[in-house]
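For reproducibility, we list the full input for the iron/sulfur cluster complex.
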Amino acid sequence: MSPAQTRQAGPEFIELTARKRLEEVIGMERLVAQAVDALSDASAEDVIKWATDTFGDRICITSSMTDAVLIHLASRIRPGIDVIFLDTGYHFAETIGTRDAVSAVYPVNVINVTPSRTVQEQDAELGPRLYGRNPDLCCYLRKVVPLERALDPYEAWLTGVRKEETSARSDTSVVEWDPRRQMVKVNPIVGWTQEQVDSYISEHGVLINPLVYDGYPSIGCSTCTARVEPGADPRSGRWEGTGKTECGIHG
Ligand code: SF4
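The corresponding predicted structure, in tokenized form, follows.
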């Protein structure tokens, strides 16, 4: 029903719709609480199985294309699952190449999501190099808003977020209710260490962005990702020197 039809339907219908949505949200919050209890010690495969059994086609993966660990895990449990990639217009060629390789190698449906404005259009409207002057606004326009649009058809999303990546992620749960997006967020490898990630990659020959072997353990836009010294905080090359640690998607 369109907004105009909803208005014509009158206040009783609107109240009924709002009440129905509230009941759905309460039901989802209860589902998340039960899942956190049931899955706190579950394997990544069992978490993905629960999520795909629960949400069917209304769940997707989001991937930065740093590696294909989550994609490999999920594609074995639910072939054909949607994988959302945010194509900001500022990616390294290697990241775009990894996206294309993932699409060719794994049985998944890669969806390339672009912002409403090209880099050139954004430069014309807001001036060049917005990422250097106002990275929060740049991330909002090129990542946060496009992701919200892309997630609209889904009830849940799978992410590769891990607790040890940043202090802000250290209390992340395996399943969470995302109140801002009104969605369930599922983090199957949240408790994995980097050693576990590395051993999964080598055991299964998982595709990995070649920049990882060139000093980029965490990869975002080329304009905002620097090479880091061996042994340094893997995310210290992201928005280096700005104090910014997250793009706004996960925090
Ligand atoms: S990471 Fe940098 S270039 Fe990419 S969207 Fe954020 S501020 Fe813009």
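DSSP finds nine helices and six strands in the chain. Residues 88, 90, 131, 135, 138-139, 142-143, 220-221, 223-224, 247 surround iron/sulfur cluster (CB under 6 Å). Both points were considered when choosing residues for closer inspection.
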